[in-house]
Amino acid sequence: MMPVGSLISAAVEGRVDEAVVKKLIVHVGAIPGDVHVKYGKTKLRERIAGYCNAARHTPWMVLVDLDQEADCAPLLRKHWLPEPEPQLCFRVAVRAVESWLLADALGLSRFLGIASAKIPSDPEALPDPKAALVVLAGGSRKREIREDMVPRVGSGRKSGPLYPSRMIELVHRHWQPDRAAQRSESLRRTIERLRRL
What we know:
Layout: E1 7-12, H1 15-27, E2 31-37, H2 41-46, H3 48-54, E3 60-65, H4 73-80, E4 88-93, H5 97-102, H6 105-112, H7 129-138, H8 143-149, H9 163-173, H10 177-181, H11 185-196
Parallel strand pairs: 1-2, 1-3, 3-4
């Protein structure tokens, strides 16, 4: 069991992941250290050996989306890091960190201004959780949510201009990890693993 107040450093793909990882570290009673945001899976993977080496000295967490890169999280983990250090918590969000946000239906429904019944009950089964989240945002009663999170017609983008900022706001103000872990096995396992660091 990890001592309360332990410092855990981390590396992630993007800013939304950073907010989620910091909240999870605090949730288990630890203190977030430096969080390295690599702005993409490729750059994160290029540095994975370095994070593994750093975990020989202090606890680390690395979070990556499964996306469509492998059929399952254990397979991706095996490709990325066959022999992780004991103090490295290498976790894979199935299929993306957005599935963890969708898993807290109550928090998300309050944030988006939609009925919780509209939120998929098994977010890890979605092929593209981010796309599902953007569709839900399109049905929001709040105009500012629709304008910030949904891409404008003809923009060619998959999400609106302030999508990351809105997701970070959701994480800080509404998202509850324990509630979400009840509908997300990969999140439940992540919380358990963090507590054992």
